[in-house]
Design brief:
Order of helices and strands: EHEHEHEHEHEHHHE
Number of helices: 8
Distance between the termini: 29 Å
Number of strands: 7
Helix content: 40-55%
Oligomer: single chain
Structural class: alpha/beta
Strand order of the largest sheet: 3-2-1-4-5-6-7
């Protein structure tokens, strides 16, 4: 299927690895010009080279930027001639017992996983409306649907973003500008391995054993891959997805047991 986004400009945040890179790969394969932002220069350079080597790649630009800061967001936006597609993503806050979280911990989580995406949406949505096309995809977490006890910071901040998006998405869709959220379950990423390491330490067991135990509880029998996540993102960014807005798409291999 031709997704109809060849030549569009996409800004993908935290895209030097993991799910962000998976989304960038999918968009590059569809002929979009892609700007990727990340904090680590070495990983970013590797990602840019990988994306540029993909068949049919157009413009691929890397920006060293921390999108949780004003300067970082400005740098990322300045590198993108126009933002037709915005993929919001940021590293999740640390796991832990909520009793140990300080006010600064909460503010940092809100800045990264709620307020930074909102600021990027604010900076780009009016231009999308004027041009009659825009796609915003926020990478959140399955914890929005089914809270994870050790991820209290993430549960709170990402749920706040979800509530904000639900309202705005109904105002922009008449202009062919959609906003949706992708909720990853357990994907084979550094973030997942970090969470397993934390849990294994708390339980006094081997992280590999814990990972295997978690895997067996997923109906699909495996962890997700960044490329299949990216493919879902690319479809939501496509010309065919103009009637999908304000939605939370859970991608978890069937792990969530509910009907709704």
């Amino acid at each position: 299927m031709d997704l109809g986004i060849a030549g569009r400009w996409a800004l993908v945040c935290a895209a030097s690895k993991g799910l962000g890179l998976g989304c960038a790969r999918a968009l590059v394969r569809e002929g979009a010009n892609v700007v990727i932002a990340a904090r680590g220069e070495d990983a970013l350079d590797r990602a840019v080279r990988e994306l540029q080597a993909l068949p049919g790649a157009r413009k691929v630009i890397g920006v060293v930027a921390d999108i949780t800061t004003v300067d970082g967001r400005q740098a990322a936006l300045a590198a993108c001639p126009q933002v037709d597609i915005l993929v919001n993503n940021a590293g999740g806050p640390p796991a832990g017992d909520f009793r140990q979280f300080t006010r600064d911990d909460w503010i940092a989580a809100l800045d990264a996983n709620m307020l930074a995406p909102i600021e990027l949406i604010r900076a780009t949505v009016d231009g999308m409306i004027e041009r009659g096309f825009g796609r915003v995809v926020n990478i959140t977490s399955s914890s929005v649907k089914a809270p994870i006890d050790i991820l209290g910071l993430s549960n709170g901040a990402r749920s706040g973003l979800t509530g904000f998006v639900a309202g705005l998405a109904r105002k922009t869709v008449a202009h062919n500008v959609t906003l949706n959220n992708l909720l990853p379950g357990q994907f084979d990423t550094d973030r997942l391995r970090g969470n397993f390491a934390y849990l294994a330490q708390q339980q006094g067991i081997d992280a590999g054993q814990l990972a295997e135990r978690k895997r067996t509880h997923i109906p699909a029998g495996r962890f997700g891959t960044a490329d299949e996540f990216g493919a879902a993102c690319a479809f939501l960014c496509s010309a065919h997805a103009g009637y999908i807005t304000g939605q939370n798409l859970l991608i978890d291999g069937g792990a969530y047991p509910g009907t709704f």
